[in-house]
Each structure stands twice: as C-alpha cells, then as structure tokens.
Amino acid sequence: MSASAVPGRLTWRFADVVGVSPETPRVKTISFDVPGWPGHRAGQHVDVRLTADDGYQAQRSYSIGSAPDGARLELTVVRIDDGEVSPYLAGELRPGDQIELRGPVGGYFVWEPSDGGPLLLVAGGSGVVPLMAMIRLRAALGSDVDTRLLFSSRTWDDVIYRDELERLQGDGLSVVHTLTGAQPPGWTGYARRVDAAMLAEVGPGPAQRPRVYVCGPTPFVEAVASALVHVGHEPSLIKTERFGPTGG
Amino acid sequence: MDALMLDGNAVAGLLQQVFGGDLTTAIGTCGSCGASGPVGAMLLFQGAGGVLRCPHCHAALIKIVSDDTRVWIGFPGLRALQLAITA
After folding, report:
1. Per-residue DSSP letters for A7-58?
2. Model-level pTM?
3. In what order do the strands lie in the sheet with B60-66?
4. Which residues in B lie closer than 8 A to residue A6 (C-beta atoms)?
5. In what order do the strands lie in the sheet with A119-124?
6. What gap in Å lies between CA A85 and CA B56, rounded to an integer?
7. How far apart are CA A143 and CA A11, in angstroms?
C-alpha cells in the first residue's frame, strides 16, 4: 500500500477544472486541481457526481489517465450522446468550472513500479486510460521495464493519446495498434480484433511471466482474457477491468 | 456473457465508502466451488441492485442494494473474506 494513497472513508471533494483538451472527435481530457487530493496510484479511478438544480444526482466512474502528480489529475472521457454524465463532462466543462468527485478508488487494477515487469497492456478504446497512467508513471520514473501496449481502436482517428504514445515509444516501450473498423491508406498493421495469434506475436510470451492488464468494454475483455489463457498466460497474472455500455 | 456485466472494480467506491478501506484487493472464497480471488475480479451483474458473482462458477457471492440514504449488503455465497490489516 503506497503511503501517498492510504485508503480511508471516502469523501466527496470539489475539483477545479484547469484544462480541457480534445483527444479525438468524441474524446476529451479534462485536467483537475483537487484541493486535499491524497494522491493516487496508476490504474485507479474516481467516482464523479453531478447534481441537477432539482437535486437529482447522477454518478459514474472514470479512470485516472495521469501519473500521480500531487493535487493534479486528468480524466479522459468519451462522449456518449445519450448519456447522463459524459455529454456534460466532455462537452460543457470549461476551465474554472467545478465538479464533485471522490477517490482514488480501487486497489486491484493497479501497477506499482516496484511490481516490475515485463508488462503486457491490452486496451480496447478508452480502456487505454488507466493503462496510460501506468505508461506515464513508467516514463516519469525513467523506467526501462519491458512494456508492450496492444491497443485496439476502430480507426486511426479514434486512437486516444496517439501522438504521445508515438513519442513515448522506445526505452523498452513498444506500442502496437490494431484498427478494427477502417484503416488509413497504406496501413500495414493489424486490422482485426485482438486474438490469440496477435497476443502471441506481440508478446511477451508466457515463459517471461508478464503482468497483464486488460481494460475495455466487457465483450473485449472477455475475448482477450480467454485468448490470453489460450496462449498460456497464467490467470493469476492477468488483471482485468471492464466498462459497460451504461458508462455514459 | 452479458454485455451489461462489469466487475468488482465498478463498485470499489461504494464498498470503500461502506467499509472504510479498499475492498477490491480483499480475497473472497466462494462457498460453492471453493475458488479464491480478489473482489475486483468478481463479475458484477446489475439490475435493481448489484450482484457480485464467482468468476469460476457464477455463484452469487455478494449482493448490494442501495438508495439515496442506505445500502444493504448481503453475503449469500461467500465462505470467507480475507483482508490485509494495515498498521
């Protein structure tokens, strides 16, 4: 248990929006300053609560995408057009606004630098967000832990954190994309759903006993988790986090 | 598989609010099949409330129902829950 994130009874805190930046046409990253924030670990999430004028409240969980950084944290939110919370977070929030959040929560889907590697990170769409916190923490520490990110997106324009991932490659990090919807002209990479053959090619293989983190929509996580076991990865080294269609 | 299925990570905040610490790393033992694993890896089925099921045999381990002011938590299928004690 990290000393900077001792869990205790959760309290709702006000978070000040300090920045909003687009990632893809449907995805935005919102930066918050959270007075009193106890710090977080890579992979944890927060609960966000919105209260309407009539007192109605809606609550959702969002993974933290930023590496631990004092009172600062970043959420990356996909706008679900008929959702209750995401259209507001990804559409309406401006610097200077406040929202309520509590956390950090969840100690299971977490990577600590002391856990070491190698790491196999498998992301479906916005499932990359908690994995990005791990990648950013690794980079911030100058770690050269062997890390492979296998990242499934619909199209090249839907790839969240695309430029930053390009920049971070090297020093033991390799990023492999698969585009399941449409591919740009001349695309030579994977163009199908993640399967056992792809996982075996991307590696590291079971013999290297990588710690595996899988995050994405439920059908994605189910398919990847069974493919990983099929390839021979030990189930106890595979950690999964699912998000659902109700996440909006 | 149910597309609405999530996992124990999704109720981490609620459980931490109730128990005062992270429960997703606690190890639950299934009373039906005997498998042990972290609460974060249990399968969450949501309807009027939430049911955490064993990822191996799908037995209902923990049931959670809440309204604005109260939460009811039952442990219909959990044989044991192992938690780390922090100093």
Report:
1. --S---EEEEEEEEEEEETTEEEEEEE-TT-----TT-EEEEEEE-TTS-EE
2. 0.94
3. B6-7, B43-46, B50-53, B60-66, B71-74
4. 86
5. A173-179, A147-153, A119-124, A211-217, A238-243
6. 33
7. 33
A165-205 pLDDT, tens digit per residue, is: 999 999 999 999 999 999 999 999 999 999 999 999 999 99
Antiparallel, parallel or unpaired: β B27-30 and B6-7 = unpaired
Q: Give the nearest chain B residue to A1 (CA atoms).
A: B86
Query: Number of residue pairs across A and B with CB atoms under 8 Å?
Result: 87
Write down the residue that tokens 């002011």 correspond to: B69
In chain A, what residues touch B26 (CB-CB under 8 Å)? Answer: none
Distance of residue B32 Cα from the nearest chain A Cα, in angstroms: 20
Burial of A9 (C-beta count, 10 Å sphere; 0-12/13-18/19+)? exposed
Distance of alpha carbon A52 from alpha carbon B40, whole angstroms: 31
Quick: pLDDT tens for A22-59. Answer: 999 999 999 999 999 999 999 999 999 999 899 888 89
Among partner residues A6, A103, A222, which is closest to B1 by beta-carbon distance?
A222
In chain A, which residue's Cα lies nearest the Cα of B85?
A: A1
Residue A206: burial class (beta carbons within 10 Å; 0-12, 13-18, 19+): middle
Distance of alpha carbon A45 from alpha carbon A109, whole angstroms: 9
CB atoms within 10 A of CB B30: 23
Helix (H) or strand (E) holding A64: none
Select from B16, B39, B67 the residue whose CB has the most chain A CBs within 10 Å, as the one to mutate to test that interface: B16
Q: What is the ipTM of this complex?
A: 0.92
